[in-house]
Amino acid sequence: MILESTADTGTTVSNATEGIADMNILRRMGFAAALALTLVSPAALAATATLAGLEEAMSHDGLQKITVKGTDLAYARPGATLAGYTRVQLDPVQVAFRKDWDPTRAGSRIKLSNAEREKIRTGVATVVQEEFVKELQSKSIYKVVNEAGPDVLRVKVHVANLYVNAPDTQSAARSSTYTVSAGEMTLFAELFDSETGETLARVIDRREARGSNMMTMSDGVMNRGQAQEIASAWARILRTGLDNAHGIGKK
Asked: Which of 151, 140, 142, 157 lies closest to 194, judged by CA?
């Protein structure tokens, strides 16, 4: 099995797919671009994309649905395995905001500039990239490389529907903003054989930043920390899939 498959059916696909656009557009434009075309609510989702349509798009090239612990929706090529891969080629992480995200600077009504939005977007991309590299190289036998090869798994990671509740622009006029959660984002990842380009698996998973029962002050440190927590969890799913394929941790 290409990733750790379980019998657990408790994950909620509607959460992961909230805001994904029409499935015909998804197939024409490619998953990464289509995931950026987001709407707002489950009601909007019901009007534009059915679960059947999403499953058709995820499996259009022969992939079949599997259940992977920790993800909302996963598809893999029948018979595919990660056992032959000991190195990972990680493409630069792509990030897109949720369509309705129209933030103001923390503690004010001033809209974020394009430069400030880009700083947040590239910052999240960097965090996710760093967490994948850290998880693969610091806690396992796998090397992250820049070239294709017979033992190289190519991984494309896209973050869609990024929503930051209280973006911190570190302006001179400091003010305090309190939130329950830093926000949310959705992972869309594809795994390929780096030499042949064959798609081995696709995964979608939506996560909210860990919240609390009380309001806490939100700032750049908090936002980054919660983004790291989510990205690290996603990276562990990939590393666990590789470990299982190599028999690591099994008695």
From this structure: 151
Contacts of 68 (CB under 8 A, 6+ apart): 3, 4, 5, 6, 74, 203, 237, 241
Neighbour count for residue 210 (Cβ, 10 Å): 11
Residue 241: helix, strand or coil by DSSP?
A: helix
Write out pLDDT tens, residues 101-118: 887 776 667 888 889 889
Q: Domains, the chain, ranges and CATH?
A: 13-245 (3.40.50)
Statement: residue 44 has pLDDT above 90: no
Average pLDDT over the chain reads: 75
Nearest residue to 204 via CA among 78, 25, 26, 24: 26
The pLDDT value recorded for residue 48 is 42
